[in-house]
Amino acid sequence: MKSNRLDHVLLVAAIAAAWQLLYLAAGPNVISSPAETLTRAVELLRTQAFWDNAANTGAAFGMASVLSITGGALVGLWLGLRQFAGDVADPILGALYSLPKITLYPIILLIFGLGISAKVAFGAIHGFFPIAIFTMNAARNVSPVYYRTARIMRLSPAATIVTVLAPAALPEIFAGIRIGLALTLLGTLIGELFASTSGLGFALIRATDIHAVPDITAITFLIFVFAACVNALLHAIELRVSHDG
Amino acid sequence: MASLGAHISLSGVTKTFESHRDHPAIHALGPISLEVEPGEFFSVVGPSGCGKSTLLDVLSGLGKASAGTIEIDGAQVNGSVPDGVGAVFQQDASFLWLNVWDNVAFGLRRLGMDAAEIERRVRNALAFMGLTGFAKAFPAQLSGGMRQRVCIARTLVLEPRVLLLDEPFGALDQQTRLLMGDELLRLWRETGATVILITHALDEAAMLSDRVGVMSARPGCFIDIITTGWPRTRDSRIVAEAHFGSITSRLWATLREQSLRAISGN
């Protein structure tokens, strides 16, 4: 899966071209042109307000990520190691994963209020389920011969988990983390869009209220760039922990 | 890497798997009584499903015997792995996330041995198994035979007094198996370990072993134990000798009927 620089350039060029076409077709009341968006994005990057919002979203996303990774990995690992609990939890996790979590947002708001905690909680529940499901399956997929090897070497259960099971399952867990964090970001931003007093999602919805199309497009663009960077970073880590040599 | 082989004694060992939901109880093994001398190379052959691997499980302490006693150097094995037992399995058990050196050093590090001794033992084991040039390689970059060497080296550095091998070459091609057999003989001679090899390959058993135990179809019991009479310095070239042919034909004569029974399901 090696991609070269040319592929990346072509991809960016194709996106820009499609964007320009969309702009020509839909007009400036709907979307800004790539050039105008870039200019506006650079302007935004020079304002304090943008960085305040970005820091706010970043903090919420960071906390939600830590919660969904630790919670998802621990629960997934536990379920993966317990055959019966895993069999029971498997369909339940699947159902909760596919539940449209936006319907829970009013309840979350009632519990946590309008502050950052609601966004963190909402982001975390988006990421938690895929990470738990991937981790559970990763733990279940660990070859039985590893367990036998660990027992022949007389490793304690804790040492078996830390030195054999976890590293064996790590690549698959990381695939779950990559998907989970994409959803965590989604959850955090949705939280900001619907009910919040700060953050990039909030800035986006305020720009929509006053129909500032360049702002909408520029903020969307910057969020997109951020998400792509997070994904690329996680993908790079995933390749490093992969066992394919 | 000299270690003294352990004496293994089984007396009246049986294994029954309890009934579970729709599955009736299965009498898988025994009764088996057997003495394996220190430093002996003992192989077990038998029809598929006869309980060869179950025997290895209860012998190593990975599984618990339903009845009977198992002793390694006089100490009872009862469902927990005793000190000084090493095992290599048919499935690849090399740790994919560690390079060859770290794979081989794994057990020693867990024991908290000092770094200089770890380095010395790993270096020796790698040289012994012909892996010196591959210390930095990861298992994914190696062939099946090389990975199995890594697993053997990882067990070897722990200086086991009993080495249990559950069809370790089962997944390898014939030439590689013969050569691995030579290495196994060399390893056995130099370590002095007691070796128990489970195999379905009669030629492998005939070539490697001091004695070969032939098991019946389930419940597996020894129906014949053949002493090969090979010198300790043997290698794979003995497959050309007439005596080799007579051992394998005697093994097959005993095993043929059992295999038919196993296939027809009674």
Outline of this structure?
The complex is a heterodimer of chains A (245) and B (266). With 245 residues, chain A is mainly alpha-helical. Helices cover 83% and strands 0% of the residues of chain A.
Q: Would you mind describing this structure in some detail?
A:
The complex is a heterodimer of chains A (245) and B (266). In chain A, 83% of the residues lie in helices and 0% in strands. Chain A has ten helices and no strands. The radius of gyration of chain A is 21 Å and the shape is globular. Chain B folds into two domains: 8-84 and 162-263, P-loop containing nucleotide triphosphate hydrolases (Rossmann fold, 3-Layer(aba) Sandwich), CATH 3.40.50.300; 95-158, no CATH class. The interface between A and B is medium-sized, with 21 and 24 residues.
Low-confidence parts of chain B:
none
Number of helices of chain A: 10
Largest interface: A-B, 21 and 24 residues
Element order of chain A: H for helix, E for strand = HHHHHHHHHH
Distance between the termini of chain B: 46 Å
CATH class of the largest domain in chain B: Alpha Beta
The helix count of chain B comes to 7
Average predicted local confidence, pLDDT of chain B: 85
Estimate the mean pLDDT confidence of chain A. Answer: 88
- Please report the total strand number of chain B as a whole number: 10
- What is the straight-line distance between the termini of chain A? 13 Å
